[in-house]
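Subject: sequence -> structure tokens, single chain

Hey, anyone have a minute? Need the predicted structure for the following. Not urgent.
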Amino acid sequence: MTIVLGSLACAVWVYLLVARGGFWRGVQADAADTPPNAQAAAWPSVVAIIPARDEAAVIGESLRSLLRQDYRGRLSVIVVDDHSSDDSAAIVRETAASAGGPREVALVAAPSLPVGWTGKLWAMHSGIRRAEGHPAPPEYLLLTDADIRHADDSLTALVARAQRDRLVLTSLMARLRCVSFAEHALVPAFVFFFQMLYPFAWVNRADRATAAAAGGCILVKREALAEAGGVEAIREALIDDCALARLLKRRGDAIWLGLTARVASARAYSSVDEIRRMVARTAYAQLGFSPWALLGVTLAMITTFIAPPLLAIFARGAPQVAGALAWALMAVAFRPTLRFYRVSPLWGLALPAIAGAYLAFTWDSAWQSVRGRGGAWKGRVYRGASGHETTKHGG
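Reply:
Had a minute. Here:
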């Protein structure tokens, strides 16, 4: 039995390294320099939309980073205050007033949340309606989060890539904060697992059905989104970024997703429990709220990540060799992500324990869903696959 398990783990890691779109290499990324046509004379208009709910700690710097953009086309910003109970709205007003410059900033209050919508998508929908009501609606929408800090040239590079490659959706996976011990232990693995689930090279190929995006930074062509039914078509989605990517790619439209150092998240996770809550919010939704899918993922995670070190330490003979080889292969696969986040490669040896933690978070997500607490986030609780919700305050 142990030799079968060890052989299976090795086979899985050979497949992941060789035939899973090279996800682990991290080569699908925006280049450090601006794409070739960045010197174009005419630049399309863009409206950046930021849904914000209790984001006083981060919204100011996020907005300032957009107002500092070197983009030579028309750029304006719409911040949608999603029933915040803190000073988010006041900070937006103060930041806009103090920034000066030609960029227009509009602060919009999200209407009461209707049944069948998730809060973020309803706020986003409100911002898009405001943008579409402009006498000259923008060609592109930049959908970004309140914790995202954009380098001065990030929008220029995004639009240049979208124009050059005729993309309807161009997304950058924001570099997550990696400072605390909890972040060092769990953040690089979060990105690694995301790439494993959605190999970016497959996302970026028209002949592959794989579709994904990173919600912190999505540039989308406004007309293409409207033709696909708008965000209303995915209004119940908890994992809204990937749902949006699927919506557009199903139509045959070209999309692109890559890593970046240009766009970074300022959101801090100072403890393991904070990361657990972040993961548990959507992990069971990712599995379609299916207990059978949860069981399948559990068996796969045990075989792929947890069994190899156990075999390497406690087995003897061929099973021990197979376990050690699988453990070494996973450490090799994890290394480029660790290098991207500038943390020690020794964390690669801890990947089995980290995977075990994420498996526990996924089970917690399922348990919270059973208890009617699925998707809990900032006072809202989204129940089950329908996305219907209750609130503790606001909205």
